[in-house]
Fold this sequence. Notes:
seven-stranded mixed beta sheet, transferase, kinase activity, phosphotransferase activity, alcohol group as acceptor, nucleotide-binding, carbohydrate metabolism
Amino acid sequence: MNQHLARLYKIAQQPSRRIIGLMSGTSLDGLDVALCRLHGHGTNTRLELEQFATVAYDEDVRYRIRQVFARPQVSLEYLTLLNPWLGQLHADMILQCLLKWHISPQEVDLVASHGQTVYHAPQHQHQNPDFPLNATLQIGDGDQVAVRTGIITLSDFRQKHIAAGGEGAPLAAYGDYLLLSSAEEERLLLNLGGIANFTYLPRAGQDASTAFSTDTGPGNTLLDATVRAHRPELAYDEDGRLASLGQVHEGLLNELLGHPFFAATLPKTTGPELFGPAYLQQAQERTGTTGLGLEDTLATLTELSAHGVAQAAKQVFGSKPALAVYASGGGAHNPALQSALRRHLPACRFATTDVLGVLPDAKEAILFALLANEAVAGQPVSIGAGRQRVPAVSMGKISFPG
Ligand SMILES: Nc1ncnc2c1ncn2[C@@H]1O[C@H](COP(=O)(O)OP(=O)(O)OP(=O)(O)O)[C@@H](O)[C@H]1O
Ligand SMILES: CC(=O)N[C@H]1[C@@H]2OC[C@@H](O2)[C@@H](O)[C@@H]1O[C@H](C)C(=O)O
């Protein structure tokens, strides 16, 4: 037997596995690295987050990714070069974290690498009649990560979801279902990253097939782009301070909300390909608000993000959803966004995933560790028959280190 396959076979039989989950999201702020100890598998999984770090991207890394990020036309040579380069970068960032944590690569069983989404193209968005399918592209080659770290690596998780009829995202439903279902309450796990999404979890023991996750529209992506355009020295509007000084412009808000994405049925996915600067620019031109000040634009965009979440929740749970909402992602640190959400969903109870024992900033990196754990030691995660877009599949392609 191939020695790496034998090692994998052994890892699969262990009572627990040490897995590094990696996520590099749409905000391009850095690589989230979550060192997880996962005991068991399936709905009996228990998570210990041993370490977590976000290794910041410097301006050069961000510049390189932006050359292809969410752009319909790019240099094919550049993309080809960026794929292994990013794999090497992520491998080096893992090694840097392990050194800091005084852990050797031999003490880690698996790496679960999401890579960097450079283009997301669900059919409803690309509408190319020659390609009647959903598509998405993550780069940062898994073989580079495996060879450079010496750790068996799973990567490219989204393609199986697409092959089985999904849009490749959000995959959050799988991890949330395994880790965060509760017999006491129905839950909404709300992730406020560049793009906002939520998972609905019915009470554990109830019909699991009603669980699903969906994107709801922009989270921080337009806020960040707007701040950077006006104030290049800032990465984002810290604590929503600028937004809270502004007034919502109702005309611009209504124009932005007029995009058919918001009324489309759930579940659905999107990305900065749609919710990018051009979307905002066109809406401003149509409403004569191109001169709107930074604070008012941010207030309006904060309202847009909250409205997207609330509209999606209302589509499923009626006009006054009363659910326990647990927030994660960078937007969970933004008081302006949080207060807009509370206003839109007054009957919901809000907290962050911290109270459930999941560090909000680490949640997405943990998701990929959970998916790798299932692919190796569990079964395809089955949330129940009938629910579209949560197919029971194992995700992740396996790279051996040699
Ligand atoms: N203190 C804060 N105040 C306001 N916003 C914040 C704060 N901290 C983080 N953020 C926002 O969160 C963003 C980073 O969020 P996160 O890391 O969840 O995004 P991501 O993982 O890249 O996105 P996605 O989940 O869409 O892939 C920042 O760019 C910023 O907009
Ligand atoms: C294609 C892609 O990378 N989508 C991301 C993105 O970031 C947030 C949102 O859009 C979500 O759909 C997804 O990531 C999370 C981890 C998911 O799949 O659940």
